[in-house]
């Protein structure tokens, strides 16, 4: 009696093509994930820089006119060893009055403080601009710049 050959066993597993497709999908998913994480890292860094610039600006505005007379003009400086640069412009503030209104009598005047703090290359997203008004005593002689 002759025996029939046993049917060949089917091998189980993945073909090379399936493995290559799986690696391609994994690489694509990891690329998207890393791109998202790097964008989030940039946002966190920008947020930290902007917050620090706001603290420096608040500190500078708190000290302007304290201990010295506030006078019109421009001043520049730096914070954190040059990482943040600031520019302060002080000028008389003119209230927009109707033309028929007479000019106010001599007395205390308002000054406008315009502070700009920049960091990085100073692009539009790396700049903080603040404006404030301060009351100058009547004894100060103000000259329009």
Automatic annotation (TrEMBL):
PANTHER family registered for this protein in UniProt: TYPE II SECRETION SYSTEM PROTEIN I-RELATED
UniProt keywords, alphabetically: Cell inner membrane, Cell membrane, Membrane, Methylation, Transmembrane, Transmembrane helix
Protein name: General secretion pathway protein GspI
One GO term (biological process): protein secretion by the type II secretion system
Domain of life: Bacteria
Membrane topology field: Single-pass membrane protein
Entry similarity comment: Belongs to the GSP I family.
PROSITE patterns hit by this protein: PROKAR_NTER_METHYL
Record keyword Glycoprotein present: no
Gene Ontology CC: plasma membrane; type II protein secretion system complex
Cellular localization per UniProt: Cell inner membrane
């Amino acid at each position: 009696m002759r025996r029939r050959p046993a049917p060949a066993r089917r091998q189980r597993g993945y073909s090379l093509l399936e493995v290559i497709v799986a690696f391609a999908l994994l690489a694509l998913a990891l690329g998207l994930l890393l791109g998202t994480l790097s964008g989030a890292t940039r946002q966190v860094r920008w947020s930290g820089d902007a917050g620090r610039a706001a603290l420096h600006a608040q500190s500078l505005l708190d000290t302007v006119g304290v201990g010295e007379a506030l006078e019109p003009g421009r001043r520049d400086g730096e914070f954190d060893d040059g990482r943040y640069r600031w520019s302060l412009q002080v000028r008389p503030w003119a209230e927009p009055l109707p033309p028929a209104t007479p000019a106010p009598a001599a007395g205390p005047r308002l000054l406008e403080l315009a502070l700009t703090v920049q960091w990085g290359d100073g692009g539009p997203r790396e700049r903080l601009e603040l404006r404030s008004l301060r009351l100058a005593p009547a004894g100060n002689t103000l000259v329009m710049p």
